[in-house]
Amino acid sequence: MPSVPAAGVLLFLAWIYPSGALYFHIGETEKKCFIEEIPDETMVIGKYRTQLWDKQSGSFLPSTPGLGMHVEIKDPETKIILSRQYGSDGRFTFTSHTPGEHQICLHSNSTKMALFAGGKLYREERFRMTSESTNQRVLWWSIAQTLILIVTGIWQMKHLKSFFEAKKLV
Question: Does pTM surpass 0.70?
Answer without folding.
Answer: no
